[in-house]
Structure to design on (218 residues):
């Protein structure tokens, strides 16, 4: 018997069940790094920590986990034993809504020294160096867009949070000098149907190089 997965791809039932066993193990591993109470500060509830240390909430890891959980929500997989609690995704979205900056961006609680792509960097904004957090904000927007189906109180504020994040990217994307930042910001502007998405795609081509007859962005 074959069971359809994401994209209509057919999986052999025995192989699927084996994969779902491993997926459940990963799910439990994620949950070991989840902060689900107020003991470390109410603003951290709904987040995931770096390396399992509850005092080190990680915005980039929480966003990545939220995207992963959204991909794991599938009715037939639930029937076979992989159930993602919808309240969990709602609480994570609530964390992002609570911790969005007044300017619309998202920032780490502390410097993420181990991250090359979402780490701390400064941008010259009219003579003043600021941390704009463009790639991190883009990642959060992408994660929120993937979870637009959540329920509960956070669902009421989700669209507004995405819109404010998009506005922050639109305001500053022309200052980007890094290929990764440009790529992820362009994608975030694309999926939010930003009026600036074409301009962002045009900027992205500036980073294009040819490598073994393939286009790469460096």
């Amino acid at each position: 018997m074959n069971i359809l997965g994401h994209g209509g791809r057919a999986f052999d039932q025995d192989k699927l069940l084996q994969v779902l066993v491993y997926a459940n193990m990963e799910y439990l591993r994620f949950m070991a790094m989840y902060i689900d109470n107020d003991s470390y500060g109410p603003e951290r509830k709904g987040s995931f920590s770096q390396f399992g240390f509850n005092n080190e909430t990680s915005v980039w890891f929480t966003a990545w986990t939220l995207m992963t959980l959204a991909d794991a929500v599938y009715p037939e997989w639930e029937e076979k034993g992989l159930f993602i609690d919808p309240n969990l995704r709602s609480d994570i979205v609530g964390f992002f809504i609570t911790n969005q900056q007044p300017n619309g961006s998202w920032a780490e609680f502390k410097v993420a020294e181990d991250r090359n792509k979402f780490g701390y960097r400064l941008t010259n904004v009219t003579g003043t160096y600021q941390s704009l957090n463009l790639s991190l904000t883009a990642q959060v927007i992408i994660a929120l867009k993937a979870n637009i189906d959540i329920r509960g109180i956070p669902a009421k504020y989700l669209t507004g949070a995405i819109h404010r994040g998009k506005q922050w990217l639109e305001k500053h994307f022309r200052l980007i000098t890094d290929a990764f930042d440009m790529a992820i910001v362009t994608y975030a502007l694309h999926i939010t149907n930003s009026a600036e998405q074409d301009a962002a795609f045009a900027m992205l081509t500036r980073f294009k190089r040819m490598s073994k007859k393939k286009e790469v962005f460096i």
